[in-house]
């Protein structure tokens, strides 16, 4: 399997120097996604062999982690959607065998797999970051098929509850993330998402960035201006006081 690897990152795991591994395959087709090649890739094998530049094998990832264990303190596992990947368990086990903290980035549409991971001390990540892309009712706009998208919205609600419980139990740190994607995330959606989160949630916003989007039409879409982005984050703070713009 071919995967993406950022050998050293200062931003993918709060407070830690980490390596970031990007596993192939995703069950959503978010139009603003910047990892489109990975999202469209095969879950089992990764990007086509003709597009191997910039990708490495899992054995190369493991060798890198072993070499850098004195420099990095964590591994962030992202995607695509990592909970789909057959490589996830082995990667977690390797990181833990090297005493590295583990963070998983997920879209929250696979609650059963998420719950099983959190319930297993041998595989439980130290941190989960969940991307809440818009209000659950609009997930049909993000999926390959509308029915799958409607189901994804319902599954997101389950994942949010699972992560609320994990955060309250103190077993796993949880971060909620939302891209300020014009047309998908506005005042209404932020109020709806905020109503699903607890007041002490760690909710981080990022500006939409055009260019290299999965849907080329989004490359011409203008991001919110600074004043409007700040206003939207202030609306989020009505429910989640610690909400912030990255």
Overall description:
The model has no long low-confidence stretch (mean pLDDT 94). This protein has a 9-stranded mixed sheet with strand order 3-1-2-4-5-6-7-8-9. Strand 4, helix 3 and strand 5 form a beta-alpha-beta unit. The protein has a single domain (2-245), classed as TIM Barrel. The protein contains 7 helices and 9 strands, in the order ββαβαβαβαβαβαβαβ. It starts with a strand and ends with a strand. It is an alpha/beta fold.
CATH topological fold name: TIM Barrel
The total domain count is: 1
In total, the number of strands is 9
Spatial ordering of strands, largest sheet:
3-1-2-4-5-6-7-8-9
**Gyration radius over CA:** 17 Å
Broad CATH class: Alpha Beta
- Give the overall average pLDDT: 94
Helix content: 25-40%
Assigned CATH architecture: Alpha-Beta Barrel
- The number of helical elements comes to 7
Q: Low-confidence parts, pLDDT < 50 over ≥5 residues? A: none
CATH superfamily: Aldolase class I
The largest sheet, given as strand count, sense and whether it forms a barrel, is: 9 strands, mixed
The helix-and-strand class reads: alpha/beta
Cα(first) to Cα(last) distance is: 33 Å
What overall geometry do the principal axes of the alpha carbons give? globular
Q: Tell me the β content.
A: 15-25%
Helices and strands, in order, run as: EEHEHEHEHEHEHEHE
